[in-house]
Amino acid sequence: MLFLVTMIDMIGFGIIIPFLTYLVKDLAEAEGVVQVGLWVGLLMTSYSAAQFLFSPFWGSLSDRIGRRPVLMVGLVGNTVFFTAFGFSNTLLFALSMRFLAGVSNGNIAVARAYIGDVSTPAQLATRMGIIGAAFGLGFTIGPFIGGEFSSPAERWDFFVGTVFDTYPYLLPCVIASVLSAASLVLAFFKLPESVDTSVPRAKPDGSLPARAKATAGNALAMLKTSSIGAMIWVSMLFTFGFTVMHAVFILYTEMDVGLGGLAFSEQQNGRVFAMIGLLGILTQGALIGPLTRRFGTRRIIPGAIAMTGVGLVLLPYTTPSYVWLQMLAVCSMIAIGNGLFQPSSSTYLTRIARHEGYELGSVMGAQESLGAFARILGPLSGGLVWEWSYGGRFPFDYHTAFHLCGLLMFISALLTLRLPDLPPMVDASPADASSEGP
To answer: Which of the listed CATH numbers 3.30.460.80, 1.20.1250.20, 3.90.78.10, 3.40.1280.10 matches domain 2-191+215-418?
Structure first.
């Protein structure tokens, strides 16, 4: 069930990637806006900006009232705001819908805390890998739906003259909403609570802004700790570099071949991201457990960062002559590196939090909030760098944003030198967990 909740969350994040640049171009042309790269960055950033502000609140709230109700609130938000985004007829409306979707959704941090609640130390790597596989599957299905079902009236006569003709990007958003609604029903009947809510807990003091400020302060305080803070910094920089690519990838692939691009359609872009997602699923579902047992989480993290960084730098050097062969090679590096990093970083952070006596909900909320901050900076920086460098001369041209990805990954890899070794694993069951799986 938690697998499904996480997957639906990532479908909502990834569904707009294949068609976002085309949507922005359509709306920008109608409104006389010329800074397409900047608006692509803003649209990608708005969801993460809202999560940055509210994830610590949702994480702390889940420590008090339980994980289950918070996860369900996120699914309600997904169901409503996915469809609303499909009806976007102005850039500001699209921006507001993505922001509201992010406000309601703290599912990723809470799902990771749920895994920590019900897992023994020896189970963590494998179970985080399963959630990572859900993450990857959602990131596969989302862009695939977004690409394959965009502009349906241009491909199937059935949709000509319908609302899907008027709003060409509505259909993939409706499909995502239906999946989210189905997940909500299943969660209501099938998802057990992982926190003992019968234990009296202190009611939160102060207003919502005051509590949000307090939880944000907690997140910043964790950055200053030696072990948890070091891992959060590494994760932030990795996410920063990775999400720069989210903004500029399609700006690059949709360019004419004569200008250095690949002239891809929405469908081709969706298939590329689906390929990345499938490779990530194979990595997180089959490789992370054996590799962790062989090398240990601490050793996997820097290698995963380096592999991802090299792949991101090589992306804009893909040539039309051998595009799919080269794209497979480059995307394999990105997908495998990211697929190893995500569950490994979560496992490391969970074990360190337990060792040092932090509440998992607060730690994961802090990680997700600061990760969301990196996802704010990433697409926005990518859009700005693209606007500044597009049309220039090498090295300050359309390659520049991808070089920025590599630089951020390099710094992240260097910072792993500060990570302490993990304490020995003790395979004891959590106090509040039964033998339930994730």
So the answer is: 1.20.1250.20
